[in-house]
Amino acid sequence: MFSLDWKGLVLPFAYLIVLSGALMTFSSIYRKRKAAESANLAPWFGPNLQRNIYLSLLHAEPEADGGSGGVPETVLKAALLRRAVEDIQRLIQIKTAKQACSALLQRGSVGDDLWQRFQRAEREMEEELRDVVTEANALAPSWGHAIFQSAHEIASNAKLRESLAEIEAQTAAEKQWWERRRGQIQSAFIKELDQEASSSAAAAGSAPAKTPAAEEDAVLVDTPAKGKN
């Protein structure tokens, strides 16, 4: 009787095995396809020029004519610090854009491709930050804990200088505009005074001139006749 019960359960078990295999195959194919699509998406940021410069200096070969071997450590530190500054700027952009991208995705204003690009940029930045810390500790012990603090200060100072330069440029432009405006106001005021003077002269010229006879008539006053005694 037990053998008959097991024979009756063979078909459901076979169905479950086939269904599980189909789901696993579909999931694997889907993940591979999504990974291929994600790899073909355009990167969020452009090429990291500072990282490429640092890697070029790091792997520079010594001169063949017996010169000094490789790049000086101070140059490597400066290049790595500039790389960290670039990473700080990109990290600020990612933090600024994350909330906006999430809100747009929830409203359906953007597609999944943009969100996948953003998530890939986040992962790349995490790997980049870890790589910079590792390189900093290799150049100087415990420098990895302080390099991004120094990079943040440099980035903040650069941003402040840019803001001051923009303010100075706006001030110069506003000063030029005010100079032109003041000249226009002065020209309009002088023109108005000239028009008033011309109007006054025209009014004076159009008034009738008094003749000498009219003046004598105006001066003579009739005196009352004296009574006869």
Short description:
The chain is mostly helical. The protein has helices at 2-40, 49-58, 73-107, 112-139, 147-206, 212-219.
Q: Please, could you describe this protein's structure?
A:
- This protein is mainly alpha-helical and 229 residues long.
- It has a domain of 97 residues.
- It is 79% helix and 0% strand.
- It contains 6 helices and no strands.
- Helix 2 packs antiparallel against helix 3 and helix 3 runs antiparallel to helix 4.
- The radius of gyration is 45 Å and the shape is elongated.
- It starts with a helix and ends in a 10-residue tail after the last helix.
- The relative contact order is 0.06.
- The model has no long low-confidence stretch (mean pLDDT 78).
- It comes from Cordyceps militaris (strain CM01).
- Keywords: Membrane, Transmembrane, Transmembrane helix.
- One of its GO terms (cellular component) is Sec62/Sec63 complex.
Shape estimate: elongated
**Main sheet characteristics:** none
Sheet-strand content, in percent, reads under 5%
Helix/strand order, N-terminal first = HHHHHH
- What gap, in angstroms, lies between the N and C termini? 181 Å
Helix content: over 70%
Secondary structure layout:
Blueprint: H1 2-40, H2 49-58, H3 73-107, H4 112-139, H5 147-206, H6 212-219
Helix pairs in contact: 2-3, 3-4, 3-5
Q: What are the key terms here?
A:
mainly alpha, 79% helix, 0% strand, Translocation protein (Sec66), membrane, Sec66, transmembrane helix
